[in-house]
Each structure stands twice: as structure tokens, then as C-alpha cells.
Amino acid sequence: MRVSASLLAAAFGILLSGAAQAAEPTLTVYTYDSFISEWGPGPAIQKQFEAQCQCKLTWVGLEDGAALLSRLKMEGKKTKADVVLGLDTNLTSEAAATGFFAPAKVDGSKLKLPIAWNDKTFVPYDYGYFAFVYDSQKLPNPPKSLAELTAPGDQPKILLMDPRTSTPGLGLLLWMKEVYGDKAADAWAKVAPKVLTISKGWSEAYGLFVKGEAPMVLSYTTSPAYHQINEKTDRYKALDFPEGNYLQVEVAARMASSKHADLADQFLAFLISPEVQKLIPTTNYMFPVIDIGDDLPSEFRSIPQPQKTLLMPSDDVAKHRNAWIREWLETVSR
Amino acid sequence: MARDGQPLNLQASVIMTARPIAGQPPIGIASLGRIAAIILIAVIAAILMRLLDQASAGDIRDLIGDSYLRRVVAFTLMQAALSTLLSIGLAVPVTRALARQSHFPGRAVLLRLFSLPLVMPALVAIFGVVAAYGQQGWMARLIGVEAWPSIYGLGGILVAHVFFNLPLAVRLLLPAWQTVPAESWRLAAQLGMTSGHIFRLIEGPLLRRALPQIAATIFMLCFVSFAIVLTLGGGPRASTLEVAIFQAIRFDADLPRAGLLAVLELVLCLIAGIFCRSLTQRMDFAAGFGRPGWRHDAATRSARICDGIWIVLAVFFVGLPELALLADGLLGFTIDLPWPAIGRAALLGLSISLIAGAGATFFGFVLAAAGHQPSSRRAGLFIRLMRSLQALAGLLPLAMSPMVLGIGFYLLVTDYTDSDLWSVIGIILLNIAMAIPFCLALLMPAVDRNLQQHDRLCRELGIVGVNRFRLVDWPSLRPQIATAFALATSLGLGDLIGISLFGNPDLRTLSMLLYEQLSAYRMDQAAATALILLLLVLGVYGAIERLAGGKQ
Question: Which helix or strand (DSSP H or E) is residue A26 part of?
Fold first, then answer.
């Protein structure tokens, strides 16, 4: 009994310590779990930002970008969020339509993205390309193009994610739509026999891939860099397709309802400063949005830049997403 | 309605005094149970009302006209029914074998290993099952990758669900066997009953008492299963209703639709629950001295061989994925692990889950006491209806969509307060709610038996309230209460829904840490974290059963 009592005291101690110092203003940032995990950029960002802002930074971590937007819609005006970090280009139109977000006062002149960035509300903080990653020991001759991947046959086996439950899953759906347009359903029908399984999220599929269940998985062009940097192996490689790879830009924005507008802008500006941007590659395994020179690890510099950048206008995504998902469902469940 | 009920109630109690063998629950505890049932029903209703606030007739029409949804419902029902039948069908012979062979080396360890799958986060279970039975799993490599059938599809769903629920069913069913008094076994031996007779006269009725509740529990668990169904089912062909709820909440923040789907899920689960309950039969044992029983048919060679085969098969099936997780986890220990984070997460998980475990055990106990039905055959319709409601209240947290339960609970809490302390209390309450059905299924047969046994004496001697619990209930129910406490606490340790809802980064449990490691490519660290979580569950389970359960 005494042991559990002291455990409890310890647990609640963690909580109460946060409440004790309430004199400084608190900036609440909603983001996704992995951003603020021990391995993500969150802890370092918090330390550096609190050192210069005379404020307290509080994270709220949810599952992913879609969960963030959904949570904001449910909380409405009552939300505690000052800043939201972790939406992506597929969600910005829908997010803007809510009217929750205010334009950011941030100097975006240093931004260096594969596409021109004109949005004043959403501040990009990293980007990456969806790609098929393969195990070169098991698959010496991977498909060289999306056309090869959508050719008849049931090999090689691939692991995908469900677009209803996963961000990369939705990315592939849009990728196929961008390349094949009205013929996307036919292309999916040809991919279907190669699919080992379609998991709920990226973690399940990537975990199964590393376990060797299938030699190929939907992920990012930056995934092999993790294995090179942390595991010193070249075994896993990403494919860039001549048809192009689909781009994902992750963004942050200030809530219009925030009582700490200046602080929020300060945070957004900090997010695209060199200090934070040089953390991004080895913590979030995405590309930085400004030129960080030699701070970009060599493993990132050797990642081939896709021959073509694909990105669907966010408005189209918002308008057609549910219909396209329905079409996909009909094709893949056949 | 109430006025009609009154005289019937009197009539019922008259009948009861005439048939003294049918006991009545002690007043204090039973009314606590009724209050608990009302609280549970009220919370679930509040959650649904919060979500359905904006629902319109059009939403309902959309739902009814949706042909895709109909297919999803059909598939959900089918896979849940198959998973339940398989789990239960296999659990009966395995439990019987374990009950008969009550002393063999390693039995206690084996039962602890059986408590693990239930508490595994879905992802861990998926990795374990795939490592053992997947395309490149141990079995495939043993038998030949070409010859081994693909796990992805309905087969994979069933394998994973049986992996989860066979051990659960065994854990829940075994205490029911222990309620058979030693005197009955002695009588069976004196009458020279064969195993067949025993099954028909003792074990059959026993199963009809305990199994329906367990079947309902498992059915509901499989009905709301989600990540497992998608990942091992091979794709969207295998979607459950819970995927549609996820979509409604996550993509469209469409609370009315999510609420309506949750109501549909609730209704289907409750129908299944009522069906299972209608199969339940009350069982009366003669009073005994409550000493451990001894079975004369356990020692024969054929019984031992038969029991041995069942036990070995079950251990093999459940143990292989666990062994695979152990192997993966040990590999993870060769690298640097974030020990401070692991320590903090373990401590936090322990404190939350111990409180939640105690709460769930308490509620499970009072609900079980209130659910005891004296002579229900002659009771009026109203009373029977009330009793059914009360009995189903304990199952409500399972029949609800976990997504909706979580988000609705979050919204209700944050409607009133946004303090950190309340998020902790919220997480604890959610964990209590989700563990109640398991405690109830575990405690019901024992509480029933206990009432039959001691109620008359207590009444005559006027032992009531706390005294009765201290002097009578606790000493005889101690092992079962301890098991319920252990199980509920372990469930809390593996919790993810509650903890991830509030998104407080200071509240990081081991399962949360594990998901973070996975999304940061740290697959090997995650495997080690999973192993630590499982070892912690084993330790806690053992410690609680030993400390709280006394010597068995």
C-alpha cells in the first residue's frame, strides 16, 4: 500500500509542478504525438523557445493532422489552442474554411520549397515526398515507375495504408488520382493483387515491412535516411518515379481566438528559423523549409529529388475527397 | 408501471421466503449496485446525447440508405460471431482441462501468460501474431514459406481475435469452475459418475451460468475491433463499423453521424447481449464448507492425456506470438533504451491503473451483487426488465464504440473544466468504465454462489453492511476479487484510448511511448518497450493475486 501511495504522489507531482508557475503567459500548441516525443523536435523547440519568450509552452499531442483538425472543429470557440502545428497541404483548404485561423505575421521570404508558397495563414515548417520504400536485399529489381507498379501481376508484394485512417494512405490516393485522373480506379484494380495488406496507420505497415512481411511499403523518400543515420545501413531505398512523387508540406497556424497573438506569431517565426529548421531532418525525418547549408546531413543531400512534384490543389481535395475514397473502396473491396 | 410493479415485488419476496434456498443480496451492497448501474447508464446516455445534439432526420435517412454501411454491418456481425464461437468453443475444453488438472508444475505461470494478450495494445498483438503466423513468420519458416497459407484475410482476423479472447475466456471461465463445492465433487465420486455424467450434471449447468456473459463480452470486444481487422483482414474488404465511426470523427468531425453509428453499434451489441443472457440459466448448488474440491475423474490416464493435449495446444497457440514478442524485445535490449522515459511511463501507468483497477473491481462487485436474481421465474415483467437493464449496464462500456466513448467523455469533461487534474481523473474514470465488464464477468458466478451459501445465516444473525463484507464476503470471495483487481489493473496498464485523448505530454504511459517509438522508426526500441510492458503486467498481476488474494 505504501508503495502505491508514493507512486501516486510521484505521478501527481509531475502534473502539479506544471501548474505552480502560472505567472508567465502560456502558449498552448496542439500538435501530433510524434512531434513532441522524445525523438521528435518538440522537446528541443520547447527549451529554446521558452528561453527567449518569457512564456511557458504547453504541448497537446494528438494522433495526427486529421485528428488535430477534427479536434478543433469539435472544441470550436472553447479551444485552448493558440497555435496548431501539424496540418498538411491536403487539409489546409478545409481548415481555412472553418475560419478558426488568422493570418500569421511571419516573414516567409527565406522559404525554399519545391512549390511556390503564397498562403499567408499557414506557415510551412517541413516537407517530404511520399514514395515506395523497398528492401534491396529482398527485391533487387523494384518497379521503376508507377506504370510498372500498376502493370498486371501480383508481385512484388506491397504494404499500403487505408486513406480513411492514415495520412500517407490518403497521399497515395491523391497521387494515383493526380497521375491517372478518371482512370485511377482501373490503376487501383491492377495494384490490388500486389497488396499484401492495407493497414490502419503507417506504423503498422512500416513495422511489418521491417519484419520482412513484404519487400515494399508506402512511406517517404526520407525514410532510408533514418536507417543510414541510425542503423548505418543502405539496405532500404526509396523509389522516385518518372510520373512524379506526391508532395506533403506540413504547416502550422495561429488560432484567431488566441489571446496571445504576438506570442503565437513569435512562435511561428521561430519555427522557420535556422535553429528549429536544422533540428527537422534528424528528428522529424522530413526536409527543412529553408536552406540550412551544411546542417543538412549528407544522407539527406543524397536523397534523389523526384523528377516531378505532384500536389493537388487543397480545394480539390476538400471537395472530392469523400467521393474519391468511396470510389477507391468500391475498387479495392471488389 | 411502477404502481403495477409494487405488488408483484411483494409477491416475489413472499415466494422467496417460502423457498429459502434462493438468497437475496445484502441490502447495502445491492443498492450500491443499483446506483452504479444507474450511473453507468446515465453517463452513456449523456455521451450519446452530447454527440446527437445536432442530429437530424436526414442523418438517419442517410444511414439507412447507405448500402456500403449495410455490407460493413454484415461483415462486422459475421466476424464477431465467428471469433466468439471459435474463442468460446476452444476455451471450454481448455478451461475444463485446466480445472481438472489443478496441480501441475507451471500451471500458475501458464495462467499468467494467458492474462497477457488482452492487455496488449492492438499493434503489439498484430506484430506478435504476424511474427508467429505471418508470411515470413516462425511457422511459415518451419513449414515452408510456400506451403504456409497467407494470414491476411478473414483467417488473420480470426487468428488474432482467438489469440486475444481464448485466454480471456479461460481466465474468466476458470473461477466459475472453482465455485463448485468440494461436497459436490465428493458426491460425484461416491455415485461413481463418469466424466460424461459430470459434464452433463455439473459442468453443463455451470457453463450455462457463466458462459453467456463471457460470450457477450467477447462478442462486443470483437465487434468494436478495428486496427486488427483492417491490418490482418487484408484491406477495406474487412472493415468494421468502428472504421466508419473513426472516419466520421476523424475526417468529418461529424459528431451526429458518429453518434448515430455508435447507437447502431450499441443496439446490435445489446441485442447480442440480451440473446446471450436469455441463454443464461441460474444454477443452485447445495451449501458446502467452501474447501477446495478434488475430482475423482482427473487422475485417469485418458483424462490426463486428453487434458494434456488441450493444454499443450492452447499454450502453443497463445505462447508462440508471446515468445516472438519476447525474442524481438530482447533484441531491443541490446541497444540504448530511454530508461528515464520508460521509468516515468511505467510509474504513471501503475498509479493510474491501480486506482482504476480498484474502482472497476468495486463497481464490478456491487453490480454482480445487485445482478443476483432470486427466483426470477415468477417475478413480474417490470422487475425482470429492471433486472435485465441492470445486468446489461455492466456491459454498456463494452457495447459502446471506444472511439465515441472516449471522445464523448472528453467533450463532457472539457465542457466543464480544462484543468490538468481533471484530465487525470477523466482518464481514470474512463479506465474504470472499460474494465467493469471484465470484473463483472469474473465476479458474477462467485458472488452468486456466495449469496446462496451464506445469505440465510447472515440474515438470521443480522450481519449486514460493512460487517457482512468484512466477515463473510471478503474471506470467501478474496481470490476472485483479487483476480478481478489484477485483471482490471493490467487492462489499465495497456490503456491507450484514455491517455491519448487528453494529449497531455506529461501523461505518457508505456503503450503511448511504444506508439511514439514506432512513429519515430524506433521499431527495435518499441519491441523492448512492449516487452517491458508485458513483464510489468505479469509482475503486477502476480503481485496483486498474491498480496490481495491470500494463499489459494
Answer: strand A26-32
User: Under an 8 A CB cutoff, do A199 and B231 touch?
Assistant: yes
Asked if the Cβ–Cβ distance from A223 to B521 is below 8 Å, we say yes
- Across the interface, of A66, A160, A329, the residue whose CB is closest to B250 is A66
> pLDDT grade, residue B285 (50/70/90)?
low
Alpha carbons B248 and B243: distance in angstroms, whole number: 9
The answer to whether residues B173 and B89 touch, using CB atoms and an 8 Å cutoff, is no
Q: Does B28 touch chain A (CB under 8 A)?
A: no
Distance CA A301, CA B206 (A): 69
Which residues from chain B sit within 8 angstroms of residue A226, using beta carbons? Answer: 521
Could you tell me the domains of chain A? 21-127+248-301 (3.40.190.10), 128-246+306-332 (3.40.190.10)
Summarize the confidence of residues B47-55 as an average pLDDT.
Answer: 86
Inter-CA distances, A27 with A55, A80, A120, B333, B508, Å: 7, 9, 21, 38, 21
Q: pLDDT tens digit string along B154-208? A: 999 999 999 999 999 998 888 888 777 777 778 887 887 777 788 788 888 888 8
Tell me the pLDDT band of B1, cut-offs 50, 70 and 90: very low
Answer whether B515 sits within 8 Å of A33, measured CB to CB: yes
C-alpha span between A88 and A329 (Å, rounded): 23
| pTM of the complete model | 0.86
Residues in A touching B226 (Cβ below 8 Å): 200
The nearest alpha carbon in chain B to A75 belongs to: B411
Q: What is the pLDDT of residues A21-44, one digit of tens each?
A: 457 899 999 999 889 988 899 999
Residue A26, Cβ density class (10 Å: 0-12 exposed, 13-18 middle, ≥19 buried): middle
Please give the pLDDT value at position B166.
95
- Cα distances (angstroms) measured from residue A86 to each of A105, A249, A256: 18, 9, 17
- A134-143, A260-269, A288-297, B373-382: lowest mean pLDDT where? B373-382
Whole-angstrom distance, CA of residue B351 vs CA of residue A216 = 41
CATH fold match for the domains B67-283+297-331 and B333-552: yes
Does the domain at B67-283+297-331 match CATH 3.30.2000.30? Answer given as no
User: How many residues make up chain B in this entry?
Assistant: 552
Determine the residue of chain B that is closest to A231 in CA distance.
B522
β-strand partners of A248:
A128
Contact criterion met (CB < 8 Å) for A4 and B134: no
- Asked if the C-beta of B503 comes within 8 angstroms of chain A's C-beta atoms, the answer is yes
Averaging pLDDT over each range in A4-8, A283-287, B58-62, which range is the top one? A283-287
ipTM of the complex: 0.86
Q: Could you read off the pLDDT of A309-333 as tens digits, one per residue?
A: 999 998 898 899 889 998 998 888 7
**What dihedral angle (degrees, nearest 10) is formed by the CA atoms of B77, B81, B82, B83?**
100
Name residue, grid cell 501474431: B129
Q: Cα-atom radius of gyration of chain A, to the nearest Å?
A: 21
Q: How far is Cα B433 from Cα B464, in angstroms, rounded to an integer?
A: 28
Question: How many CA atoms lie less than 13 Å away from B77 in the CB half-sphere?
Answer: 14
Interface contact B518-A75, CB threshold 8 A: no
Pairing of strands A83-88, A26-32: parallel
Share the mean pLDDT of chain B: 82
B500 chain-A contacts, CB cut-off 8 A: 33, 62-63
Q: What does the domain layout of chain B look like in residue ranges? A: 67-283+297-331, 333-552
Q: Which fold has domain B333-552?
A: MetI-like fold (1.10.3720)
